[in-house]
């Protein structure tokens, strides 16, 4: 027996809330990093600009979440709205990975791996 295919409305109601929560989670983590650390491979202006874009995206996602709830989960989002958020999350991931990598390198012993046995 085949399972009935979910309707568009059912898909929207099941996929959109966790997607928006994921955006909020990653933007929150990124904001925390950008507000608390000096990202040395970014200029102060680049870090500030990235932080402002993250704050703006957080507000946009919050608005989308509120509209979704206020309309009884009837409002969706166009891909054109989601793509900039997706791209910003990817940019933040790259910054975070590079920052963690540089931080990890800085904490390693300067002579690690240089000892002869």
Descriptive overview:
- Helices cover 73% and strands 0% of the residues.
- It has 117 residues and is an all-alpha fold.
- Helix 1 runs antiparallel to helix 2 and helix 1 (8-36) runs parallel beside helix 3.
- The longest helix has 29 residues, at 8-36.
- It is elongated, with a radius of gyration of 20 Å.
- The model has no long low-confidence stretch (mean pLDDT 88).
- What's the overall average pLDDT, rounded? 88
Structural Rg: 20 Å
The geometry reads as elongated
Oligomer: single chain
Task: List the uncertain runs.
Answer: none
Number of helices in the DSSP assignment: 3
The percentage of residues in β strands lies in under 5%
Main beta sheet strand tally, sense and closure: none
Question: What's the number of extended β-strand segments?
Answer: 0
Query: Any idea how many domains?
Result: 1
User: Class by helix and strand content?
Assistant: mainly alpha
Helix and strand sequence: HHH
List the helices and strands and how they pair.
Blueprint: H1 8-36, H2 44-70, H3 79-107
Helix pairs in contact: 1-2, 1-3
Task: Sum this structure up briefly.
The protein is mainly alpha-helical and 117 residues long.
